[in-house]
Amino acid sequence: MTIKKALMLSFILLWHISLNAQKITHSFALSDSSFMLDGKPFQMISGEIHYPRVPREAWRARMKMAKAMGLNTIGTYVFWNLHEPQKGKFDFSGNNNVAEFVKIAKEEGLWVILRPSPYVCAEWEFGGYPYWLQNEKGLIVRSKEEKYLKEYETYIKQIGKQLAPLQVNHGGNILMVQIENEYGSYGNDKEYLAINQRLFKEAGFDGLLYTCDPTDAIADGHLPGLLPAINGIDNPVKVKKLISENHSGKGPFYIAEWYPAWFDWWGTVHHTVPAENYTARLEGALSAGISINMYMFHGGTTRGFMNGANYDDKHPYEPQISSYDYDAPLDEAGNATKKFMLFRQVIAKHLPAGQILPPVPAAKPTIPIDNIQLKESAGILDILPKPVLNKTPLTFEDLKQDYGFVLYHTTITGGKTGVLKLNELRDYAVIMINGKNVGVLDRRHKQDSIKLTLPAGRVKLDILVENLGRVNFGPYLLKNKKGITESVKFNGVEVYNWAMYSLPFNRVGNIVYSNKKAIHTPIVRKGEFNLSKVADSYLNMESWGKGVVWVNGHNLGRYWSVGPQHTLYLPAEWLKKGKNDIVVFEMLSSEVNRLNGSKTPILNKLQ
Fold first, then answer.
1. pTM listed for this prediction
2. What confidence tens digit (pLDDT) does each residue in 516-550 have?
3. Count H helices, E strands: the chain?
4. If 0-12 CB within 10 Å is exposed, 13-18 middle and 19+ buried, where does residue 269 land?
5. Helices marked H in 24-112 — which ranges?
6. I need a surface site. Which of 362, 408, 440, 580 has the fewest CB within 10 A?
7. Could you give the 3-state DSSP secondary structure of residue 3?
8. Which helix (H) or strand (E) element contains residue 160?
9. Which sequence positions are flagged as catalytic?
């Protein structure tokens, strides 16, 4: 062997040794009373941030805010329906790059609690499940049913490829990984939970696994041998009692979801909780050595069509709003609130010796945007794609459509008055006769029928149906199809021969605008506005009816005049100096054609 070869081999060997030394740098374990990081007690002071609810360009800024409040850890769910939107087609790009989110947290000095679950709840469409699971005949989510477990395994192994190498025992910053999610509120099958554990391990999650449940569900939802975290209480005595009772008399003691606020749904008041109500409770938990994860530290925005809904036999259908501000310590735009500052004061008293909190970054600037005019337009009936024909109405799932809208079209004999009934409408419908709006039906109010007087002759009947968000919690996870899910009847006689037009609005750059006047019909409007400088803004939709807004191709979410939300947060990261494009799909008020951007949000105003 030549000296040159020997030196090269020595270099390669040293490089491998160095690489391995860099990878295995930390240990994370459980003692009887605390978490142990590198053999020393570690108190997690964590806050939840969901990567899809924050523009990727702003992830790092949010992490810096977390550090400034005193957090040492970030919690996040992983969302199956984002990463496998269609069966077998995975997406970890752009805002879905969860591995990059975790790596940025590490760069900013933050540990991560990972919650791939795969059911997440989270006020998220279908609780995180992809819509297409409902097309697998016989598949039952959250069960040992064979088809579900097969799809679950495929998904979790893809997540493992992305994130298992980032666990703390592999040199990364993921401390713990949660299996399932509040399962005790849904079932009590320990065999199913054990299958979850096995699938996670086979996917490469070989560090600490845990479960989390509210107080009355912890016995059903935890798996013996795993840490049972608790949600929704912070009394130190009760927390320690419940966890130790389900963990062989031991800790550590972890509140996996500590709620300093709450979420909103359409047509109800904006939920707020005074910070002063929670400072003493935060102090009590931290003083008792309990680790916590604030849900939420920063909510952000549920953009696109990804909001979920609550519904059960005792409560009406309640679709959640686009703003996920949550009255959290960090507001929707990422600015510190009074709650942030008061919590920071509490946390500062519990820092390790010698540690000082960084300064709080200044609030981000905001700008008004005056008189945005939308001069181009297209009526919804003028931009329909090729239809699918069927004798009876088809659901979104039948059409292999995930979100957005479906327009149902047929013709019926007129010259009479009667009741049009949509059996099992999900969720909101605009009824049109000969191309004009004549009424709406709203699942929230259990409306499925409307009295119509039809003109003489053959009458065009169009029904535009919106998926307002699949149920994300409870038994109706299994009954979550969208559209007209059963039948349409007029005066008790079933209506047949439907043409169905899919309008997912997953992109709006291909719409052709004719500017043909569209009155009393859903309409798409397009405009532009020019900016000399870029900053956050809030699009004020108070004069509009109901719809969706896109700016520079980004779906900002839904607006609805019922409130409480009347503005859509427009992040600076998605704006540019000079010309910016805006598209609005308006369902109810076809005559409105201008709006403004304001410096402050409106999240607390009911119609």
1. 0.95
2. 887 899 999 999 999 999 999 999 999 999 999 99
3. 10, 34
4. exposed
5. 59-69, 80-83, 98-107
6. 362
7. helix
8. helix 146-163
9. 182, 257
